[in-house]
Amino acid sequence: MSQTRNEAPARAGANVRKVFIKTYGCQMNVYDSQRMGDALAGDGYEPTDAIEDADLVLLNTCHIREKAAEKIYSELGRIREMKIEREAQGRSLTVGVTGCVAQAEGPEIVERAPVVDLVVGPQAYHRLGGALARVAAGERVVETDLTTQDKFEKLPRQDGRQIAARGVTAFLTVQEGCDKFCTFCVVPYTRGAEVSRPFAAVMEEARRLAAAGVRELTLLGQNVNAWSGEGGGGRRLGLGGLLRELAEIPGIARLRYTTSHPRDMDDDLIAAHRDLAALMPYLHLPVQSGSDAILKAMNRRHKAGDYLRLLDRIREARPDIALSGDFIVGFPGESDADFEATMELVRQVRFAAAYSFKYSPRPGTPGAAMGGHVEEAVKTERLERLQALIREHQLAFQESFVGREQEVLVEKRGRHPGQMIGRSPFLLPVVVPQSAGAIGEIVTVRIEASLPNSLMAEGADHENRVAQPLRKIA
Ligand code: 5AD
Ligand code: SF4
Question: Which residues are listed for [4Fe-4S] cluster 1 binding in this entry (predicted)?
Fold first, then answer.
Protein backbone atom coordinates (compact mmCIF):
# COMPACT_ATOMS: atom_id res chain seq x y z
CA MET A 1 0.00 0.00 0.00
CA SER A 2 2.92 2.32 0.43
CA GLN A 3 3.18 4.94 -2.24
CA THR A 4 5.73 7.63 -2.77
CA ARG A 5 4.57 11.18 -3.22
CA ASN A 6 5.91 11.39 -6.77
CA GLU A 7 3.78 8.49 -7.85
CA ALA A 8 0.58 9.75 -6.36
CA PRO A 9 -0.74 12.21 -8.97
CA ALA A 10 -0.78 9.61 -11.74
CA ARG A 11 -3.01 7.27 -9.78
CA ALA A 12 -6.70 6.91 -9.23
CA GLY A 13 -6.28 8.77 -5.94
CA ALA A 14 -5.31 11.93 -7.81
CA ASN A 15 -8.68 13.54 -7.26
CA VAL A 16 -8.93 12.56 -3.61
CA ARG A 17 -9.01 15.88 -1.82
CA LYS A 18 -7.14 16.32 1.42
CA VAL A 19 -8.23 18.11 4.55
CA PHE A 20 -5.99 19.51 7.26
CA ILE A 21 -7.80 20.30 10.51
CA LYS A 22 -5.99 22.32 13.17
CA THR A 23 -7.58 22.15 16.60
CA TYR A 24 -7.30 24.84 19.25
CA GLY A 25 -8.64 24.90 22.79
CA CYS A 26 -10.42 22.22 24.75
CA GLN A 27 -11.08 18.51 24.35
CA MET A 28 -14.55 19.20 23.04
CA ASN A 29 -12.92 20.77 20.02
CA VAL A 30 -10.70 17.70 19.66
CA TYR A 31 -13.82 15.54 19.56
CA ASP A 32 -15.57 17.91 17.14
CA SER A 33 -12.54 17.89 14.82
CA GLN A 34 -12.65 14.09 14.71
CA ARG A 35 -16.34 14.08 13.90
CA MET A 36 -15.85 16.72 11.19
CA GLY A 37 -13.05 14.59 9.77
CA ASP A 38 -15.41 11.58 9.71
CA ALA A 39 -18.11 13.62 7.98
CA LEU A 40 -15.66 14.93 5.40
CA ALA A 41 -14.41 11.41 4.72
CA GLY A 42 -17.95 10.72 3.47
CA ASP A 43 -17.56 13.69 1.10
CA GLY A 44 -14.33 12.30 -0.33
CA TYR A 45 -11.77 14.10 1.84
CA GLU A 46 -8.80 12.27 3.27
CA PRO A 47 -7.13 13.66 6.40
CA THR A 48 -3.56 14.94 6.18
CA ASP A 49 -1.11 16.12 8.85
CA ALA A 50 0.73 18.32 6.33
CA ILE A 51 -0.92 21.65 5.64
CA GLU A 52 1.06 21.96 2.36
CA ASP A 53 -0.77 18.91 0.96
CA ALA A 54 -4.24 20.11 1.89
CA ASP A 55 -7.00 21.22 -0.48
CA LEU A 56 -9.10 22.25 2.50
CA VAL A 57 -7.79 23.81 5.71
CA LEU A 58 -10.08 24.08 8.73
CA LEU A 59 -9.11 25.96 11.87
CA ASN A 60 -11.26 24.67 14.73
CA THR A 61 -10.97 27.59 17.07
CA CYS A 62 -11.24 28.62 20.72
CA HIS A 63 -12.61 31.92 22.02
CA ILE A 64 -12.14 31.44 25.74
CA ARG A 65 -9.37 34.03 26.15
CA GLU A 66 -8.30 36.88 23.91
CA LYS A 67 -4.91 35.31 23.13
CA ALA A 68 -6.56 32.15 21.85
CA ALA A 69 -8.86 34.14 19.56
CA GLU A 70 -6.12 36.43 18.23
CA LYS A 71 -3.92 33.44 17.32
CA ILE A 72 -6.45 32.57 14.64
CA TYR A 73 -5.92 35.81 12.78
CA SER A 74 -2.16 35.42 12.70
CA GLU A 75 -2.58 31.83 11.47
CA LEU A 76 -4.96 33.08 8.78
CA GLY A 77 -2.29 35.59 7.72
CA ARG A 78 0.14 32.71 7.11
CA ILE A 79 -2.49 30.69 5.27
CA ARG A 80 -3.23 33.68 3.06
CA GLU A 81 0.37 33.70 1.83
CA MET A 82 0.14 29.99 1.15
CA LYS A 83 -3.07 30.47 -0.81
CA ILE A 84 -1.53 33.23 -2.94
CA GLU A 85 1.44 31.00 -3.78
CA ARG A 86 -0.91 28.14 -4.60
CA GLU A 87 -3.06 30.22 -6.86
CA ALA A 88 0.03 31.38 -8.73
CA GLN A 89 0.61 27.68 -9.50
CA GLY A 90 -2.98 27.23 -10.61
CA ARG A 91 -4.04 25.20 -7.54
CA SER A 92 -6.84 26.12 -5.22
CA LEU A 93 -7.14 26.08 -1.45
CA THR A 94 -10.36 26.31 0.54
CA VAL A 95 -10.10 27.84 4.00
CA GLY A 96 -12.65 27.47 6.78
CA VAL A 97 -12.97 28.66 10.36
CA THR A 98 -15.01 26.48 12.73
CA GLY A 99 -15.41 26.39 16.51
CA CYS A 100 -16.06 29.12 19.02
CA VAL A 101 -14.41 32.05 17.23
CA ALA A 102 -16.58 31.17 14.25
CA GLN A 103 -19.66 31.32 16.44
CA ALA A 104 -18.71 34.52 18.23
CA GLU A 105 -17.33 36.51 15.33
CA GLY A 106 -18.98 34.89 12.26
CA PRO A 107 -19.42 37.67 9.68
CA GLU A 108 -16.56 39.70 11.19
CA ILE A 109 -14.08 36.95 10.28
CA VAL A 110 -15.07 37.01 6.63
CA GLU A 111 -14.63 40.78 6.63
CA ARG A 112 -11.35 40.86 8.51
CA ALA A 113 -9.79 37.85 6.74
CA PRO A 114 -10.66 37.74 3.03
CA VAL A 115 -8.78 34.43 2.76
CA VAL A 116 -11.64 32.69 4.60
CA ASP A 117 -14.21 30.92 2.40
CA LEU A 118 -16.46 29.50 5.09
CA VAL A 119 -17.27 30.02 8.74
CA VAL A 120 -19.20 27.26 10.51
CA GLY A 121 -20.20 27.43 14.18
CA PRO A 122 -20.06 24.42 16.53
CA GLN A 123 -23.77 23.64 16.26
CA ALA A 124 -23.74 23.57 12.46
CA TYR A 125 -21.11 20.93 11.66
CA HIS A 126 -23.70 18.73 10.01
CA ARG A 127 -24.00 21.49 7.39
CA LEU A 128 -20.28 21.45 6.55
CA GLY A 129 -20.74 19.37 3.37
CA GLY A 130 -23.46 21.71 2.10
CA ALA A 131 -21.37 24.75 2.96
CA LEU A 132 -18.42 23.36 0.98
CA ALA A 133 -20.67 22.79 -2.03
CA ARG A 134 -21.77 26.42 -1.85
CA VAL A 135 -18.15 27.54 -1.61
CA ALA A 136 -17.35 25.48 -4.72
CA ALA A 137 -20.15 27.37 -6.45
CA GLY A 138 -18.43 30.66 -5.62
CA GLU A 139 -20.18 31.70 -2.41
CA ARG A 140 -18.62 32.73 0.90
CA VAL A 141 -20.58 30.98 3.61
CA VAL A 142 -21.32 31.86 7.25
CA GLU A 143 -23.32 29.22 9.19
CA THR A 144 -23.68 30.08 12.85
CA ASP A 145 -27.17 28.96 13.84
CA LEU A 146 -27.42 27.72 17.42
CA THR A 147 -29.84 24.81 17.18
CA THR A 148 -30.94 22.81 20.20
CA GLN A 149 -31.03 19.53 18.29
CA ASP A 150 -28.37 16.89 18.71
CA LYS A 151 -25.97 17.85 15.96
CA PHE A 152 -24.04 14.62 16.34
CA GLU A 153 -27.09 12.60 15.31
CA LYS A 154 -26.94 14.28 11.95
CA LEU A 155 -23.25 13.55 11.44
CA PRO A 156 -22.21 10.17 10.05
CA ARG A 157 -21.28 7.51 12.60
CA GLN A 158 -17.59 6.85 13.11
CA ASP A 159 -16.49 3.58 11.58
CA GLY A 160 -14.43 1.00 13.41
CA ARG A 161 -11.29 1.65 11.39
CA GLN A 162 -11.30 5.37 12.09
CA ILE A 163 -11.82 4.70 15.80
CA ALA A 164 -9.10 2.09 16.00
CA ALA A 165 -6.63 4.42 14.28
CA ARG A 166 -7.17 6.94 17.09
CA GLY A 167 -6.09 4.54 19.81
CA VAL A 168 -7.43 2.90 22.93
CA THR A 169 -8.68 6.03 24.65
CA ALA A 170 -11.51 8.10 23.25
CA PHE A 171 -13.49 11.22 23.94
CA LEU A 172 -17.25 11.13 23.79
CA THR A 173 -19.20 14.38 23.99
CA VAL A 174 -22.37 13.81 26.01
CA GLN A 175 -23.36 17.38 26.77
CA GLU A 176 -22.81 20.78 25.24
CA GLY A 177 -23.40 24.36 26.21
CA CYS A 178 -23.83 26.05 29.53
CA ASP A 179 -26.59 27.87 31.41
CA LYS A 180 -24.44 28.98 34.33
CA PHE A 181 -23.35 32.37 32.99
CA CYS A 182 -20.21 32.88 35.02
CA THR A 183 -19.49 36.55 34.41
CA PHE A 184 -16.05 35.97 32.85
CA CYS A 185 -17.08 33.27 30.40
CA VAL A 186 -18.07 33.31 26.72
CA VAL A 187 -19.18 29.68 26.59
CA PRO A 188 -22.91 30.32 27.15
CA TYR A 189 -22.75 32.62 24.12
CA THR A 190 -20.57 30.50 21.85
CA ARG A 191 -21.88 27.03 22.65
CA GLY A 192 -25.41 28.00 23.57
CA ALA A 193 -27.71 26.57 26.23
CA GLU A 194 -27.10 23.28 28.00
CA VAL A 195 -28.11 20.31 25.86
CA SER A 196 -27.65 16.65 26.80
CA ARG A 197 -27.20 14.00 24.15
CA PRO A 198 -29.88 11.32 24.49
CA PHE A 199 -29.00 8.27 26.58
CA ALA A 200 -29.50 5.83 23.69
CA ALA A 201 -27.21 7.85 21.38
CA VAL A 202 -24.45 7.95 24.01
CA MET A 203 -24.73 4.22 24.71
CA GLU A 204 -24.70 3.39 21.02
CA GLU A 205 -21.56 5.41 20.40
CA ALA A 206 -19.86 4.00 23.50
CA ARG A 207 -20.58 0.43 22.36
CA ARG A 208 -19.25 1.24 18.92
CA LEU A 209 -16.06 2.65 20.45
CA ALA A 210 -15.64 -0.37 22.73
CA ALA A 211 -16.17 -2.78 19.84
CA ALA A 212 -13.36 -1.03 17.95
CA GLY A 213 -10.94 -1.58 20.84
CA VAL A 214 -11.37 1.52 23.00
CA ARG A 215 -10.64 0.75 26.66
CA GLU A 216 -10.99 4.19 28.23
CA LEU A 217 -13.80 6.67 27.63
CA THR A 218 -13.69 10.31 28.67
CA LEU A 219 -17.15 11.85 28.67
CA LEU A 220 -17.03 15.47 27.63
CA GLY A 221 -19.22 18.46 28.22
CA GLN A 222 -18.80 22.11 29.15
CA ASN A 223 -20.88 21.16 32.15
CA VAL A 224 -20.71 17.42 31.85
CA ASN A 225 -22.14 16.70 35.28
CA ALA A 226 -25.32 18.56 34.31
CA TRP A 227 -26.03 15.70 31.86
CA SER A 228 -29.47 14.24 32.23
CA GLY A 229 -31.38 11.71 30.22
CA GLU A 230 -33.96 8.97 30.18
CA GLY A 231 -32.78 5.41 30.66
CA GLY A 232 -34.69 2.17 30.03
CA GLY A 233 -38.36 2.33 31.09
CA GLY A 234 -38.36 6.13 31.18
CA ARG A 235 -36.06 6.25 34.24
CA ARG A 236 -34.47 9.71 34.81
CA LEU A 237 -30.74 9.42 34.81
CA GLY A 238 -28.01 11.85 35.84
CA LEU A 239 -24.33 11.51 35.00
CA GLY A 240 -23.87 9.01 37.85
CA GLY A 241 -26.54 6.78 36.32
CA LEU A 242 -25.03 7.10 32.87
CA LEU A 243 -21.60 6.12 34.21
CA ARG A 244 -23.10 3.02 35.87
CA GLU A 245 -24.56 1.95 32.52
CA LEU A 246 -21.35 2.66 30.61
CA ALA A 247 -19.30 0.66 33.12
CA GLU A 248 -21.26 -2.45 32.06
CA ILE A 249 -20.13 -2.27 28.43
CA PRO A 250 -17.71 -5.15 27.72
CA GLY A 251 -14.22 -3.83 26.96
CA ILE A 252 -14.63 -0.49 28.72
CA ALA A 253 -12.17 -0.62 31.62
CA ARG A 254 -11.87 3.04 32.49
CA LEU A 255 -14.23 6.00 32.63
CA ARG A 256 -13.50 9.67 33.14
CA TYR A 257 -15.51 12.85 32.67
CA THR A 258 -14.71 16.52 32.31
CA THR A 259 -15.51 19.43 32.96
CA SER A 260 -17.73 19.68 36.00
CA HIS A 261 -19.33 22.50 37.94
CA PRO A 262 -19.33 22.18 41.75
CA ARG A 263 -23.06 22.88 41.90
CA ASP A 264 -23.88 19.86 39.75
CA MET A 265 -21.97 17.26 41.79
CA ASP A 266 -25.05 15.41 43.02
CA ASP A 267 -25.21 12.57 45.57
CA ASP A 268 -25.56 9.87 42.94
CA LEU A 269 -22.50 11.04 41.03
CA ILE A 270 -20.49 11.12 44.26
CA ALA A 271 -21.78 7.60 45.06
CA ALA A 272 -20.65 6.46 41.58
CA HIS A 273 -17.11 7.38 42.62
CA ARG A 274 -17.50 5.00 45.56
CA ASP A 275 -19.23 2.18 43.63
CA LEU A 276 -17.58 2.00 40.23
CA ALA A 277 -14.11 0.52 39.95
CA ALA A 278 -14.00 1.72 36.32
CA LEU A 279 -14.55 5.34 37.30
CA MET A 280 -11.02 6.68 37.66
CA PRO A 281 -10.05 8.48 40.86
CA TYR A 282 -9.37 11.81 39.20
CA LEU A 283 -11.74 14.75 39.07
CA HIS A 284 -11.41 18.07 37.29
CA LEU A 285 -13.55 20.41 39.33
CA PRO A 286 -12.80 24.08 38.65
CA VAL A 287 -13.30 26.55 41.49
CA GLN A 288 -11.73 29.65 39.83
CA SER A 289 -11.05 31.59 43.08
CA GLY A 290 -10.80 31.08 46.82
CA SER A 291 -12.40 34.42 47.68
CA ASP A 292 -16.13 34.56 48.42
CA ALA A 293 -16.37 38.15 47.17
CA ILE A 294 -14.78 37.21 43.84
CA LEU A 295 -16.79 34.00 43.53
CA LYS A 296 -19.91 36.14 43.97
CA ALA A 297 -18.76 38.66 41.36
CA MET A 298 -18.03 35.72 39.05
CA ASN A 299 -21.59 34.44 39.59
CA ARG A 300 -20.26 31.03 40.55
CA ARG A 301 -23.13 30.62 43.01
CA HIS A 302 -21.10 28.87 45.67
CA LYS A 303 -18.63 29.93 48.35
CA ALA A 304 -15.12 28.65 48.96
CA GLY A 305 -16.41 26.77 52.02
CA ASP A 306 -19.08 25.01 49.94
CA TYR A 307 -16.36 23.79 47.59
CA LEU A 308 -14.21 22.48 50.45
CA ARG A 309 -17.18 20.71 52.05
CA LEU A 310 -18.04 19.16 48.68
CA LEU A 311 -14.48 17.85 48.39
CA ASP A 312 -14.81 16.31 51.86
CA ARG A 313 -17.88 14.39 50.67
CA ILE A 314 -16.18 13.27 47.47
CA ARG A 315 -13.09 12.15 49.40
CA GLU A 316 -15.26 10.23 51.81
CA ALA A 317 -16.67 8.30 48.84
CA ARG A 318 -13.30 7.84 47.15
CA PRO A 319 -10.43 8.56 49.56
CA ASP A 320 -7.65 8.35 46.96
CA ILE A 321 -9.27 10.77 44.51
CA ALA A 322 -6.92 13.27 42.88
CA LEU A 323 -8.28 16.71 42.14
CA SER A 324 -7.61 19.17 39.44
CA GLY A 325 -8.96 22.67 39.00
CA ASP A 326 -9.01 25.89 37.01
CA PHE A 327 -8.17 29.32 38.40
CA ILE A 328 -8.49 32.85 37.16
CA VAL A 329 -6.27 35.54 38.67
CA GLY A 330 -6.93 39.25 38.35
CA PHE A 331 -10.70 39.13 37.93
CA PRO A 332 -12.06 42.73 38.22
CA GLY A 333 -11.96 43.87 41.85
CA GLU A 334 -9.55 41.11 43.00
CA SER A 335 -7.58 42.57 45.93
CA ASP A 336 -4.37 41.19 47.45
CA ALA A 337 -6.50 39.64 50.19
CA ASP A 338 -8.79 37.99 47.63
CA PHE A 339 -5.78 36.53 45.87
CA GLU A 340 -4.32 35.30 49.19
CA ALA A 341 -7.63 33.48 49.77
CA THR A 342 -7.07 31.64 46.48
CA MET A 343 -3.53 30.70 47.56
CA GLU A 344 -4.93 29.47 50.88
CA LEU A 345 -7.56 27.32 49.18
CA VAL A 346 -4.87 25.79 46.95
CA ARG A 347 -2.74 25.03 50.04
CA GLN A 348 -5.70 23.31 51.65
CA VAL A 349 -6.76 21.23 48.65
CA ARG A 350 -3.30 20.36 47.25
CA PHE A 351 -4.42 19.82 43.64
CA ALA A 352 -2.74 17.01 41.69
CA ALA A 353 -2.85 19.38 38.71
CA ALA A 354 -4.43 22.74 38.02
CA TYR A 355 -4.68 25.24 35.21
CA SER A 356 -4.50 28.93 35.93
CA PHE A 357 -5.05 31.94 33.73
CA LYS A 358 -4.92 35.72 33.86
CA TYR A 359 -8.38 37.16 33.55
CA SER A 360 -9.06 38.13 29.95
CA PRO A 361 -12.08 40.40 29.37
CA ARG A 362 -14.34 38.84 26.76
CA PRO A 363 -16.63 40.98 24.64
CA GLY A 364 -20.28 40.75 25.66
CA THR A 365 -19.66 39.15 29.07
CA PRO A 366 -20.66 41.01 32.26
CA GLY A 367 -17.09 40.81 33.63
CA ALA A 368 -15.74 42.91 30.77
CA ALA A 369 -18.06 45.78 31.78
CA MET A 370 -17.12 45.65 35.50
CA GLY A 371 -15.01 48.29 37.20
CA GLY A 372 -11.78 47.58 39.05
CA HIS A 373 -9.78 45.90 36.31
CA VAL A 374 -6.48 44.63 37.68
CA GLU A 375 -3.21 45.86 36.21
CA GLU A 376 -1.36 43.50 33.91
CA ALA A 377 1.81 43.50 36.06
CA VAL A 378 -0.22 42.51 39.12
CA LYS A 379 -1.93 39.72 37.19
CA THR A 380 1.47 38.46 36.03
CA GLU A 381 2.90 38.44 39.52
CA ARG A 382 -0.14 36.65 40.98
CA LEU A 383 -0.16 34.07 38.21
CA GLU A 384 3.53 33.30 38.77
CA ARG A 385 3.03 32.82 42.50
CA LEU A 386 -0.05 30.65 42.03
CA GLN A 387 1.58 28.50 39.36
CA ALA A 388 4.68 27.97 41.51
CA LEU A 389 2.50 26.72 44.36
CA ILE A 390 0.45 24.46 42.10
CA ARG A 391 3.63 23.08 40.54
CA GLU A 392 5.05 22.29 43.99
CA HIS A 393 1.95 20.25 44.84
CA GLN A 394 1.91 18.59 41.44
CA LEU A 395 5.51 17.43 41.79
CA ALA A 396 4.90 16.21 45.34
CA PHE A 397 1.87 14.29 44.05
CA GLN A 398 3.95 12.62 41.35
CA GLU A 399 6.79 11.87 43.80
CA SER A 400 4.32 10.13 46.11
CA PHE A 401 4.08 7.25 43.61
CA VAL A 402 7.78 6.41 43.56
CA GLY A 403 8.24 2.89 44.97
CA ARG A 404 4.51 2.14 44.62
CA GLU A 405 2.66 -0.06 42.16
CA GLN A 406 0.36 1.51 39.60
CA GLU A 407 -2.05 0.11 37.05
CA VAL A 408 -1.21 1.56 33.67
CA LEU A 409 -3.29 1.46 30.52
CA VAL A 410 -0.72 1.09 27.73
CA GLU A 411 -1.58 3.63 25.02
CA LYS A 412 1.25 4.00 22.53
CA ARG A 413 4.91 3.51 21.71
CA GLY A 414 7.36 5.66 23.61
CA ARG A 415 9.91 8.02 22.17
CA HIS A 416 12.71 5.50 22.61
CA PRO A 417 12.81 1.91 21.42
CA GLY A 418 11.75 -0.52 24.10
CA GLN A 419 9.46 1.98 25.77
CA MET A 420 5.70 2.32 25.80
CA ILE A 421 3.61 5.15 27.24
CA GLY A 422 0.49 4.70 29.25
CA ARG A 423 -1.48 6.45 31.95
CA SER A 424 -2.05 5.77 35.59
CA PRO A 425 -5.56 5.97 37.08
CA PHE A 426 -4.56 9.50 38.17
CA LEU A 427 -3.99 10.57 34.58
CA LEU A 428 -0.21 10.66 34.95
CA PRO A 429 1.75 9.55 31.89
CA VAL A 430 3.88 6.51 32.76
CA VAL A 431 6.78 5.21 30.70
CA VAL A 432 6.74 1.39 30.86
CA PRO A 433 9.02 -1.23 29.31
CA GLN A 434 7.69 -2.73 26.10
CA SER A 435 7.81 -6.16 27.74
CA ALA A 436 5.20 -5.01 30.27
CA GLY A 437 2.30 -5.28 27.85
CA ALA A 438 0.72 -4.39 24.53
CA ILE A 439 -1.32 -1.35 23.57
CA GLY A 440 -4.77 -1.63 25.16
CA GLU A 441 -3.62 -3.76 28.10
CA ILE A 442 -3.74 -2.63 31.70
CA VAL A 443 -0.51 -3.62 33.38
CA THR A 444 0.72 -3.32 36.93
CA VAL A 445 4.15 -1.75 37.22
CA ARG A 446 6.29 -0.41 40.02
CA ILE A 447 7.18 3.26 39.70
CA GLU A 448 10.92 3.88 39.85
CA ALA A 449 11.22 7.62 39.25
CA SER A 450 9.28 10.82 38.86
CA LEU A 451 10.29 12.97 35.89
CA PRO A 452 9.06 16.55 35.34
CA ASN A 453 5.87 15.50 33.51
CA SER A 454 5.72 11.74 33.78
CA LEU A 455 6.56 8.69 35.85
CA MET A 456 9.10 6.04 34.91
CA ALA A 457 8.25 2.40 35.63
CA GLU A 458 10.85 -0.14 36.71
CA GLY A 459 12.68 -1.56 33.70
CA ALA A 460 11.62 1.18 31.26
CA ASP A 461 14.77 3.19 31.57
CA HIS A 462 16.96 0.07 31.60
CA GLU A 463 15.51 -1.21 28.32
CA ASN A 464 16.00 2.22 26.87
CA ARG A 465 19.71 2.28 27.76
CA VAL A 466 20.17 -1.14 26.20
CA ALA A 467 18.24 -0.16 23.11
CA GLN A 468 19.97 3.14 22.41
CA PRO A 469 22.90 1.90 20.31
CA LEU A 470 20.44 0.12 18.03
CA ARG A 471 18.70 3.42 17.46
CA LYS A 472 21.94 5.00 16.30
CA ILE A 473 22.63 2.24 13.79
CA ALA A 474 19.11 2.63 12.39
N1 5AD B 1 -10.27 34.83 31.24
C2 5AD B 1 -9.40 33.93 31.75
N3 5AD B 1 -9.69 32.64 31.93
C4 5AD B 1 -10.92 32.22 31.57
N5 5AD B 1 -11.49 31.01 31.62
C6 5AD B 1 -12.73 31.12 31.12
N7 5AD B 1 -12.99 32.38 30.74
C8 5AD B 1 -11.87 33.08 31.01
C9 5AD B 1 -11.52 34.45 30.86
N10 5AD B 1 -12.36 35.34 30.37
C11 5AD B 1 -10.84 29.83 32.21
C12 5AD B 1 -11.64 29.27 33.38
C13 5AD B 1 -12.26 28.04 32.80
C14 5AD B 1 -11.19 27.62 31.82
C15 5AD B 1 -11.66 26.67 30.77
O16 5AD B 1 -10.76 28.81 31.24
O17 5AD B 1 -10.74 28.97 34.41
O18 5AD B 1 -12.54 27.07 33.77
FE1 SF4 C 1 -18.17 29.11 31.49
FE2 SF4 C 1 -19.05 29.04 34.03
FE3 SF4 C 1 -20.34 27.69 32.10
FE4 SF4 C 1 -17.92 26.85 32.91
S5 SF4 C 1 -19.77 26.94 34.18
S6 SF4 C 1 -18.62 27.02 30.76
S7 SF4 C 1 -16.90 28.77 33.35
S8 SF4 C 1 -20.15 29.91 32.24
Answer: 26, 62, 100
